[in-house]
Design brief:
The protein is of the alpha+beta class. It is built from 25 helices and 20 strands. The strands form 6 sheets. Strands 1, 2, 3, 9, 10, 11 and 12 form a 7-stranded mixed sheet that branches. Helix 5 packs across helix 6, helix 7 packs across helix 8 and helix 21 crosses helix 24.
């Protein structure tokens, strides 16, 4: 079966756009092929700085013929309807139609046959449309061709389109079309400097091999592997260690077609700057990797760069050029750092009086005061030193006004820690300046120092309560203030530090510190708590907890204590993995189903204690006794927050529940006995709700 080779050759495509563009090209072409009845065997897309490429294997040479039936008017229907039917279906007369019987009458049916087209003709039709409507996040129009203004929007000027189609054993054909005056062909170009001549290609294997010979590595992953392996080897040879950076590696691999790894250096005096500032300077300005000493873990005055050319001088000029750019950048960073050290953090705080945090929530200075007050209230609940928590909250945002953070926003918090230590602050206070922002995502670490945790919770809860108070809640996919992230951060801080905290009380306290008056202040803490509950469900599900178990625990209420909910879900999951758990669940569900049916039938509930005098069978008595014992034991275990013991107590219900359903007919002919037995079933449901609402659990 034939294969397609498509290449779109252009000026440099921004590295950040390449991976998505390659995926979009594959998706758009293959989706359209399938829609046209051309089901393929496989497809791969590639990107380099100057090209997008796609190969699709095993495309049928021709579309299948299609036969469809089209229903027309009733036999004997109006002539206008008949003529319209004939025109729409291409029939010459009603003699070419067949008649189909229907309960509503006899109808004319046209059998329409549509012959499939050659796949190359279909490709010539769909590919130019895809190119013209390609979803670049940013694109441009340029120049004029043949005296006419250009009409194509593309990320950068498009120079050539290669499009070939054919079976492996034959010479492929060119898929002929043009876009904005660019005619398709089978000519591409190699490396801009080392092999710029035109290359004639036939199919993908030939194309990839010729590009490699022309100093172009087509596969982005192959370029990443080369850069990473060569960088590791180069640093290891000098007794050093590469500081790995996957995001930078992804970007650098999109900047070169023929990666050549080299090492440069800078003056050792710049090592007086914090490592993170050195890394940010070199990474942001020159897209280079930093290098550390494996013995000390500290950065060295070396860096690794990736060139796009094999230089005749062995790369000396390229290395020198990078050093020449990096040196003044590091000099600036050193100046910023040393300048910052001359001003204490608290001396910067008055400037926050003029900086608005949010128009409805006041200045940054007012917010800092709220965080201080809230951190002081939370600290004793965590065993944190109140004075240290207050001091940390007071200083935590001050580094936002420093020169280094102004230049490199990604080191906010971290620089606060360095400056706090430099001015002699307590280690816990300094750590909190950095860690109060954490966790910022699912992969970010959670602080464990009580002072850091207190300030981190105060910061996030103040944000959530504040935006809830002014009715700026997340909606759909929109969350401009990252409130979902803040809520997940609170959840992780509580769960991973095993904290017992009443979110309702903390939220109410945060609300009291606001200068705004929400329309429904009474409802706000509970409304915010429901948001936390939804976020916790997401968190637990992502950790592998069954969604129905989360719902079963949440159905009990008491969502104020997130730690208890997490422990209940964990214990319930383990219990239901056991045979006792599975069988008891079946019995409880059976009891709930029977109760549901009978309650609906009688239009009432069967609350209240059963009458022991009406027990006539030993199985009834045994079940009633077991329920009483289990309810007391499980409730006592829950009160001690020993959920595993509560589940063990529940397991004792399994034998009497099984025996009850084997020997006892619930819907007895005697109405009083029937009612009593239904009340006994309700007791099962009531007893198990000490742990979870088992009706929410799926079989």
């Amino acid at each position: 079966m034939p294969d397609l080779l498509l290449e779109l050759f252009s000026e440099e495509i921004p590295a950040r756009m390449q991976a998505k563009a390659a995926d979009d090209l594959r998706r758009l072409v293959t989706d359209k092929l399938v829609a046209e009845g051309l089901v393929y065997e496989g497809a791969r897309a590639f990107a380099t700085p100057r090209r997008l490429a796609l190969t699709v294997h095993g495309i049928p040479a021709r579309q299948p013929d299609l036969k469809t039936e089209r229903r027309g008017p009733k036999v004997g229907g109006p002539d206008a309807a008949v003529q319209g039917f004939l025109k729409a279906t291409g029939l010459k007369s009603l003699d070419e139609a067949k008649i189909q019987r229907d309960p509503k009458g006899d109808f004319y049916i046209a059998l329409i046959e549509k012959a499939g087209r050659d796949a190359i003709d279909v490709l010539a039709e769909i590919l130019p449309v895809i190119i013209r409507t390609f979803p670049w996040p940013k694109s441009m129009r340029w120049g004029a061709r043949s005296g006419k203004p250009g009409s194509l929007s593309w990320v950068r000027p498009l120079h050539a389109i290669t499009a070939t189609f054919g079976p492996e054993t034959e010479e492929p054909d060119i898929v002929k079309f043009s876009v904005d005056g660019i005619e398709t062909g089978q000519t591409t170009y190699g490396h801009r400097f080392m092999a710029p001549s035109a290359i004639s290609v036939r199919r993908f294997e030939d194309y990839e091999a010729k590009l490699k010979a022309a100093k172009v590595i087509l596969d982005p992953q192959a370029r990443k592997d080369i850069i990473f392996a060569d960088a590791k080897e180069l640093t290891f040879a000098q007794g050093l260690e590469l500081v790995e950076d996957q995001v930078l590696l992804d970007e650098v691999s999109g900047l070169v077609e023929w990666p050549v790894v080299m090492m440069g250096s800078f003056e050792a005096e710049y090592l007086a700057i914090p490592d993170e500032v050195i890394r940010a300077t070199i990474r942001n300005n020159q897209k280079c990797f930093v290098v550390k000493d494996p013995k000390t873990g500290k950065l060295t005055n070396k860096f690794v760069l990736t060139a796009n050319i094999e230089a005749t001088d062995g790369g000396k000029t390229i290395v020198a050029g990078n050093e020449r750019v990096i040196r003044p950048r590091l000099s600036d960073a050193k100046f910023f750092y040393e300048t910052d050290l001359k001003t204490k953090l608290e001396d910067r705080l008055p400037k926050f009086d003029q900086i608005v945090f949010h128009a409805k929530l006041g200045t940054q200075a007012a917010r800092i005061k709220r965080i201080e007050r809230l951190a002081a209230e939370i600290a004793p609940l965590l065993g944190a030193d109140v004075a240290k928590a207050t001091r940390a909250a007071h200083l935590a945002k001050a580094d936002l006004l420093t020169e280094v953070v102004g230049e490199f926003p990604e080191v906010q918090g971290l620089m606060g820690k360095y400056y706090a230590l430099a001015q002699g602050e307590d280690a816990s206070v300094a750590a909190a300046c950095e860690e109060h922002y954490k966790p910022q995502g699912p992969a970010d670490r959670v602080p464990t120092d009580p002072v850091s945790v207190a300030v981190a919770l105060a910061d996030k809860i103040d944000t959530l309560v504040g935006f809830w108070a002014i009715d700026e809640k997340p909606t759909g996919s929109k969350d401009p203030y990252a409130l979902r992230r803040a809520a997940l951060g609170v959840i992780r801080l509580i769960a991973e530090n095993a904290l017992r905290l009443s979110l309702m009380k903390v939220a109410a306290s945060a609300l009291a510190g606001l200068s705004v008056n929400p329309t429904d202040a009474q409802k706000l803490p509970s409304d915010l708590l429901a948001f936390f509950a939804d976020r916790l469900k997401v968190q637990l599900r992502e950790q592998g907890a069954r969604h129905d178990l989360v719902d079963a625990v949440f159905a009990l209420g008491g969502q104020d204590d997130l730690l208890m909910i997490v422990r209940r879900v964990e214990a319930l999951g383990k219990f239901l993995e056991s045979d006792d758990g599975k069988n008891l669940l079946a019995g409880i569900k059976r009891a709930s189903n029977i109760l549901g049916i009978e309650e609906k039938k009688d239009k009432r509930t069967f609350d209240g204690a059963p009458d022991a005098a009406l027990y006539s069978l030993g199985e009834e008595k045994a079940l009633a006794k077991a329920i009483g014992e289990v309810k007391a034991e499980a409730s006592a275990a829950v009160a001690k927050e020993d959920f595993a013991a509560a589940m063990s107590a529940m397991a004792k219900l399994r034998p009497p529940v099984d025996a009850f359903f084997d020997k006892v007919r619930v819907n007895d002919d005697d109405a009083k006995v029937r009612e009593n037995r239904l009340k006994l079933l309700n007791e099962i449901r009531s007893a198990t709700r000490a742990v979870a609402d088992f009706s929410k659990i799926q079989d």
